[in-house]
Write a structure and sequence with these properties.
Radius of gyration: 18 Å
Helix content: 40-55%
Largest sheet: 5 strands, mixed
Shape: globular
CATH superfamily: Carbonic anhydrase
Number of domains: 1
Number of strands: 5
Oligomer: single chain
Bound molecules: zinc ion
Order of helices and strands: HHHHHEHEHEHHHHHEE
CATH class: Alpha Beta
């Protein structure tokens, strides 16, 4: 059995990002990228090659989006060249699991063009088995370095689950409740908390729980996370400001024992 350097992983996780830290302001300044350079066939060479750099790039891209200064997703003159550069393969540096909500345009809000993000979108950012398989595929076969599980403000899926309060939703919507099983039980409403504040808290807790649960559900992701080849990072997108709030990567220490 391979001994996993769990204490090292834990230390690195602790150092990565302070809770609620606004990563964009802490991220390293993005190297100046002309639109032409970003879309040249060589653009794939500038992909982050480790989890820390991958997370910093997402933060930098989001900062550009918030500031109204997108670079990578602005110039349409090089779309053909971008497609041509990607025909032979893909190596997306980040996996994004987020909600299907039309107000969460993942590529724009991270300012990343085609070939950079491997995105799984399902209402409530609660991946089903195929969503999980998609994430495993990207992490294992495409070499993605970071997996962001991103909820968002004013999430209708979280609201529906909250308002149903355990009573089955109609049609196949019950699957949303199954995907968020345990959310309401783990996070009861505070007596002094209004519905809006409670809803916002559930959105954050759901993103954190979904990220943590990936480790329990996937031996493959657990192994990659333990080896620090992939960071699994909960996040929350704020519709009004456009800001993505990143939280600490989930810790593999809390997952199932590695020995067998
Ligand atoms: Zn949503």
């Amino acid at each position: 059995m391979r001994a996993l350097p769990l204490f090292l992983a834990t230390t690195a996780f602790a150092l990565l990002a302070q809770e609620h830290a606004a990563l964009p302001s802490k991220a390293k300044p993005h190297a100046p990228v002309s639109a032409a350079a970003a879309h040249s066939p060589a653009a794939t060479l500038d992909s982050p090659d480790n989890p820390s750099a991958a997370l910093a790039e997402l933060g930098a891209g989001n900062a550009r989006f918030v500031a109204g200064k997108r670079v990578r997703t602005l110039d349409t003159n090089h779309d053909a060249a971008m497609r041509a550069a990607l025909v032979g393969g893909q190596a997306p540096f980040a996996i994004v699991i987020t909600c299907s909500d039309s107000r969460v345009p993942d590529a724009l809000l991270f300012d990343q063009e085609a070939g950079r993000l491997f995105t799984i979108r399902e209402a409530g950012n609660a991946p089903d088995l195929q969503g999980l398989a998609s994430a495993e595929y990207a992490a294992e076969h495409l070499g993605s370095k970071v997996l962001v599980v991103m909820g968002h403000s004013s999430c209708g899926a979280v609201k529906a689950v909250r308002e149903a309060a355990g009573k089955p939703l109609p049609g196949n919507l019950w699957a949303l409740q199954a995907g968020m099983a345990g959310l309401l039980e783990s996070t009861p409403q505070d007596p002094n908390e209004d519905a809006k504040a409670y809803g916002a808290r559930l959105e954050e807790v759901n993103a954190r729980r979904q990220a943590q649960t990936l480790l329990d559900r996937s031996a493959l992701l657990r192994e990659l996370a333990a080896a620090e080849k992939v960071w699994i990072v909960p996040a929350l997108y704020h519709l009004a400001s456009g800001k993505v709030q990143f939280f600490k990567p989930v810790s593999v220490v809390a997952a199932a024992p590695a020995h067998h």
